[in-house]
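User: Quick one: structure for sequence A, then sequence B.

Assistant: Sequence A:
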Amino acid sequence: MTRILVVDDEPQILRALRINLRARRYDVDIAGSGAAALKAAASHPPDLVVLDLGLPDIDGVEVIRGLRGWTAVPIIVLSGRAGSEDKVAALDAGADDYVTKPFGVEELLARIRAVTRRLGASTEAVPALRIGQHTVDLADHRVLRDDGTEVKLTPTQWSVLEKLLRHPGKLVSQRQLLQDVWGPEYQNETNYLRQYLAQLRRKLEDDPARPRHLITEPGMGYRYRP
């Protein structure tokens, strides 16, 4: 059973989400603060986190960074902050998706299903691929530097990278990437792609400012150059 940690300081939202998620056979833990969320995640590691940004003790973006220090668990941000700066900050910290309050429960459930599908997607056998000083093994979901240390990627970072690496040398359009990774309702969220490609370049390219392998084709899409 999929375990979901719901983090929000509004008791009515916690109660509503716990009822709706349990009715759909999810195992649900709840937390009303950032500190409680980090403690709960460490004690009973979740399969997915639904996280409010406006917490009473620790800003939600800091909670994301705290989680990303040790886990790649998918994180869906749930927040009343509708500004693009807040979305960028959350995505850049490592969130996988962003839902703005007020929201419909069915919309949130659809986002949860999409993230868990990405997490559980099967991987066809492919040879190991190279990006700079890194070897990417898609079958094992591992990235190793040449010195043997492992680079951690979040599930969504993996999904974006995999879509590019499975089409070496070919242009993958923005629309195709957004639809394949996030779903058809995200075809205009090009800011998601900019954030995730920037994250991948920081982790994998020798010079992220001058990428040699994860290439942007302005106005069209992205390309993996072997």
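Sequence B:
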Amino acid sequence: MFECVVAEDEELLRTSLLLQLGEVWPGLRIVAECEDGASALEAIAEHKPDVAFLDIRMPGLTGIEVAAALSEVSPRTQVVFVTAYDQYAIDAFEQGAVDYLLKPVARDRLQATVQRLQARVAAGRPDPATLEALLQHLAKRPAEPEAAPPLAWITANSGRETRLIMLDEVAYFRADSKYTVVVTAEGEALLRTPLKELLEALDPRQFRQVHRSTIVNLKAVASVVRDDSGKGTLRLKGRSETLPVSVPFMALFKGM
């Protein structure tokens, strides 16, 4: 039986895709349903599925960033990108052997995609050069205007005090139940915003998720060490503790 991970942050679209997959590919087993890039990457690393449907734009890691990490965490996984209308991306997909689906997903298009996937899965490991070329092409896409500028500062509670904290002062964020702990050189404070929501507002060039429950400020990282098991450890500037990096997220530090 073929196995699959579906990653789509819009619940209605995710549910619709899952229902259609059940109809056109009855033998497919969905091993994980994910609503953000980090959980998708962890699920793929855990299950090593035959296929991954990845929304291009997700909170935290994008589908493109997740796909770029697959060569290390699950090289045999076939990728299908799910995207809203984007001619630049579609032109890139049409040049290669990587499938894409437009939102909302049309049944006939999904049926054709499934037939190609079944053939590719049966043939074995995908061509890494094809996927790598596509990802490089997509990375060169024209810059898009941002809906809002990234956050520059936040307010967080420390006891009875409400502190204004500049983001450059933050070493890392740590999930704590429904809230988030903000860690700086001066100590800790509590932010009443879940980690997932916070990640959407942060500048992805400066803040990177390294664990399901941790976002680190890259400016605060002194070094990255990988152990024999593939896990990593971050040493920080101005903090004595170290931060674990789970195996799937180590692929995101290849350039460091």
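The chain has a mean pLDDT of 85. The longest strand covers residues 28-34.

User: Thanks, that's what I needed.
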